[in-house]
Amino acid sequence: MAMKYLKVLKTLHQHLDPQVYFEVGVRAGRSLAHAPHRAVAVDPDLSPLRPVLRDRSGFQFYEQESDAFFRDHRREDVLGDARVDLAFIDGLHHSDQVARDFANVERWCRPGAMVVMHDCWPDRPEIAYRESCPGQWAGDCWRVIPFLRRHRPDLELTVLDSGPTGLLIVRGLNPDSPDVGQYSGELDAEAAAPREQQDREWAAYRAREIAVEPETFLASIGWDAPDENDGEAD
Question: How many structural domains is the chain composed of?
Fold first, then answer.
């Protein structure tokens, strides 16, 4: 069984020990809870947030949409001289929004930081459209991978086959890179295509990309797997 995405995130926090963690899309805070030190969390609705996290030392919460957050706040005003070491993007499941979130988060990161994106390896087309569906919905986040390969070939992209809908690991960040968010309209046009065309594009993406097992990637960055499962849920 594939390692689930929350277990991957927990392992990254344990292995990388990020001094500053940034998260777009918080909900109840299940992924946020693994941050060991300082954290900045952005979500337009923080009502589901676990109460135990609200008063946690070093955690900063901003109840607004991510575009508005980055418009209204400068990194220096929020973090001072610090920069982001690890970020997780799991907000609106629209590829254009994910592209803008990535571009904005990258400017807050230090060189050598890592950005993780959720829902980038959906296993069937009916959950991979921009329109939401009942049950598991990945949206069209997967379109960000070919988009970044077009506009940011300098980035190192690794797709993880983690449960239930995959992760994308982005490394080789350049905080001074031109803003790829300016090209996000391309993704709007792709998402407006007929379903049959979108299905073909999704199938071509799945055939072209190689998704690695999370354990393989984690081992490549120096993680030693424990002898026994630690019991982490999904």
Answer: 1
